[in-house]
Every structure is written in C-alpha cells, then in structure tokens.
Amino acid sequence: MSWTTFLENAPPADHGVQVYRELEELAASVGRFLAAGFRAGDPALVIVTSDHWRAFLEELERRDQDVAALQEEGLLTTWDADEALAALMDGGLPSAGRFEEVVGGAVDAVARRFPDRTVRAFGEMVDLLHRRGQESAAIALEELWNGLLETRRVALLCAYELDVFDLDTQASALPEIVRTHTHPRPVADTGRLAAAVHDTLTEVVGSDAAARIYLRVAENVPRTALPRAQAVLMWLSRHEPATARLVLQGSRARYVAPA
Q: pTM for the complete prediction?
C-alpha cells in the first residue's frame, strides 16, 4: 500500500509514521489524513502540541474543513500532547494501565458516538519523548498503540522530527521506528530521496559496487512499505558506516538542492 493510499483510506490497524524536518511537511500529511476521514464520515482523535496545532488548523482550513463545526459535531476531538503524556508516564516509561484508561478510554468514547466507523488518530506523544532523549519510552509507547490497534477500529498516524541524513539516526533510531509501523515515510519526497541516494552511492563506490549493495539489501531486508532508498541507508549505516557517512553527506546535498 502506498503512502497516499494509507492517508486517504486509513484501513483499521494500520500505523503510519511521518519523519519530518519542516513542520509544513508534517502538516501536509496530517491535513490529508484527517480531511480524507472527515469526508468519509470518520471521526478523529488528535493528540497534538499547541504550536503544531496552529499549522494543522491552517492546513485543514486550506482543505475546506470547518474545524469549529467538526468539533461541535464530535467528529474532531483534540488533546494537548504534553498533558496526555504526563497522564501516561510512570517514572521513565508509559504505563500500560494508564494508557488503556486514558487513550483507550478516549478512543472508546469517540467510537461510541460513531459506531462502525474507523477512528483516525494522530499523536505526537512519541515525538515529544524522542526529542527529550527518551527513545526507549517512545518505542514502548508505540508498542502500546499497536496493542490498542489490535482491539479497536483505529488507524494511527504519528510523527518524529529527525534528520534522516544523520548516521546515528539511521543506525539507531530509525530501525526501531520502522519496525513498529506498517507505513514508514522517511522524507516528504521519496522519489527525490531515491535519486539522491542512487546518484551519491554510485559516485562514492562505483556502479558495480552499488549494484552489489542493492542486491544485498534486497536479499537481507524484507520488502515492505519502507522506501528502498531508506532501506539502503539503514543497511549501509549498520554494515558499512564509513561508506554510509559519505553517502548520507552527498545524499543530503542532492536532496535539499533546488530542483
């Protein structure tokens, strides 16, 4: 399933993640995800930081969504991400019991108002944890969300503010983030990423060695919704970090260069 299909159709139990550097990139995905649901009659639970909500609100209005009316009809429920996260944490980790009570209870309340509809949820609590250096807690919260997706009719979108051209991000953060999602989106423009990685990899190691790397990735990395260029970057970062550093540096320059 493509990223566009996930955002538009949001099948129950699917779990997408947008990795972003600019808020506009995230707002575009969130706006499309929510607006498509509202058009279909699906309700939404949005757990968001106050500064990001302003950008999402503008994006929804740009997509001809009357946010005040949606809230009045109960189709749109918003929570402050900082407050919601504080209610879940027990020491340095999220509590399974509190998560079920707080988040599960909120989902159930929305579902009761709109039976037989898919609840579209967007959450920024994992992003807050990751930005605070609590990477293990963020992944633990992802696992709790995945457990909830098995018991409720929910489609979930979340996000992380990360630099995908950083070696440590590729080697440590992204593998676990990818593992816990059915639809990972590492950048806004995956086609541009593919071209940037291919051209840089060929420049750094030569065409024959690049072909061998693509083959090894195909043999060792399962074919999933993960863009192949991102799979190459993660594989290189784990197995050939010196080469990965050069490829990441060159790919960054090509990706961000003006068209």
A: 0.94
